[in-house]
């Protein structure tokens, strides 16, 4: 029984890690776009 719980928990942790990676990637892309827009407006 405990082995099944460990597998279930590890799958949940992998899904949470995947979500975190996606959120970080999207936020970095948005930050990059905002920086490009900001630098283009400064010139």
Description:
It is built from one helix and no strands. The longest helix has 41 residues. The chain has 43 residues and is mostly helical. The termini are far apart. It is rod-shaped and about 60 Å long. Helix content is 95%, strand content 0%. The model has no long low-confidence stretch (mean pLDDT 91).
Keywords:
43 residues; mainly alpha; 95% helix; 0% strand
Structural class computed from helices and strand pairing: mainly alpha
Mean pLDDT: 91
- Secondary-structure element order, as H and E? H
How is the main sheet built?
Answer: none
Task: Indicate the proportion of strand residues.
Answer: under 5%
Distance between the termini: 64 Å
User: Helical element count?
Assistant: 1
Nearest-angstrom radius of gyration? 19 Å
Shape: rod-shaped
- Tell me which oligomeric state these chains represent: single chain
Task: Tell me the helix content.
Answer: over 70%
What is the count of β-strands?
0
* Uncertain spans: none
């Amino acid at each position: 029984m405990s082995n099944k719980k460990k597998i279930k928990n590890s799958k949940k942790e992998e899904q949470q890690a995947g979500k975190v990676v996606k959120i970080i990637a999207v936020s970095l892309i948005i930050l990059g776009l905002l920086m490009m827009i900001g630098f283009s407006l400064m010139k």
